[in-house]
């Protein structure tokens, strides 16, 4: 039985091996390595998001999802922007 999951390209090692992190519910649950040539050409960069089909320990299909990648980047930027907003200056009093 095969399952479909979301995977993110974590890194490319020595220009030949891709490391994909499989996610479930926003958490990393597994890691797969495969030849970079098995990835779609437009998804051969860090942070690329894929829909993958997994059967046992085998990665059967890898489908690049540029819209999902764009959405993730926008959400991460929004979080960063919110966190980097300056808090109002707190007044301090000397005792």
Radius of gyration computed on alpha carbons: 19 Å
Computed structural class: alpha+beta
* Helix and strand pattern: EEEEEH
- CATH architectural group: Beta Barrel
Number of strands: 5
How helix-rich are the residues, as a percent range?
10-25%
Largest sheet, described in full? 5 strands, antiparallel
Give the termini distance in whole angstroms.
70 Å
Q: Tell me the number of helical segments per DSSP (H or I, 4 or more residues long).
A: 1
Oligomer: single chain
Order of strands across the main sheet? 3-2-1-4-5
Share of β-strand residues? 35-45%
Give the overall pLDDT as a whole number.
86
What CATH first level would be assigned? Mainly Beta
Overall number of domains? 1
How does the overall form come out from the CA principal axes? elongated
């Amino acid at each position: 039985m095969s399952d479909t999951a979301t995977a993110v390209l974590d890194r490319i090692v020595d220009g030949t091996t891709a490391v994909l992190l499989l996610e479930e519910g926003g958490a990393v649950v597994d890691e797969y390595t495969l030849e970079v040539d098995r990835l779609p050409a437009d998804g051969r960069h860090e942070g690329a998001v894929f829909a993958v089909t997994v059967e046992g320990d085998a990665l059967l299909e890898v489908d690049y999802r540029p819209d999902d990648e764009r959405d993730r980047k926008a959400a991460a930027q929004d979080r960063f922007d919110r966190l980097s907003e300056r808090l109002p200056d707190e007044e301090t009093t000397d005792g």
